[in-house]
Amino acid sequence: MTAIRQRKKGSTVPRPHPDHGTLPAPLVDRFGRVHTDLRVSLTDRCNLRCTYCMPAEGLDWLPRPDVLTDDEVVRLVRLATERFGITQVRLTGGEPLLRRGLPGLVARLAALDAAPELSMTTNGIGLARSAAALREAGLDRVNVSLDTLRADRYAEITRRDRIGDVLEGLRAARDAGLAPVKINAVPVRGVNDDEIVDLTAFALEHGYRMRFIESMPLDAQGAWDRDRMVTAAEILDLLRERYDLNPVERRNNAPAEEWRIGATDARVGVIASVTRPFCGACDRVRLTADGQLRTCLFATDESDLRALLRNGADDQALEAAWRTSLAGKGPGHAIGSAGFRRPERPMSAIGG
Question: What's the topology of domain 2-350?
Fold first, then answer.
């Protein structure tokens, strides 16, 4: 792992294409946004049934042959890093820890010539037994979803009694050095909005970094209700009753606004996707588990890279398809406007 980590941390200068020796040409859309962050969904399957995400009976999962193979994932990530200058790759799901052989796939991504910073978003179930192996393979950090500290409430929200596994997974990730370990929570009015301060205090106590995310209309049931969404302003008002918050300069095009707590190095973040959208500075592009390229979380169309891969397309054809897709990226998600259309896929099938 040491050799991989040293090479990754030293990879600050764009590397030439191995085929023709030129520097990567950035993925720039028609609004001038440069894309450096790739979200890769490894599966649409999940072992929870969160009420704000999917129905109790779950969803119809993708047939396994439809899911990208490890070789296909590695090829597309290699293309993204070498030809487009992608510097950050986040592995998502569904629940990415359900992907068989995940440490091996992480190791292959970490060993790429233009290796990106590798992170993962997970529900934390199974992290206790895999954190050390993932760190050894080259994973840099994790975000763990945890919406409550109460066991009964966790079981009610997720329809599974697994909070103990999540807490154990958080500890294992911290001990393995997957830092900073971030906790993601989605406050919902009347469900868990009374725990915003408690979750922050828990994160501070254990050395994690707390982030709150405004709920978005991406549930499979189509039951999202803006009135139940707890806004960023409300979250910050509650936190300021307990803490002295000092704004931190936003890093690149990071989705989270962060505040330093008092004079400490501890931070809390808020992702205000609905009330304070950051679409104008978006640097993200998404790849679904079945190989569909999405230019926005709320995109209503996709580009089929899997079909190109399996029909023998060379790297030039894949690059052309990727750039054509980015050229059509819209200015923003337009939630709340008359023209807003929900994507057909729910969050679990898109990848966070």
Answer: TIM Barrel (3.20.20)
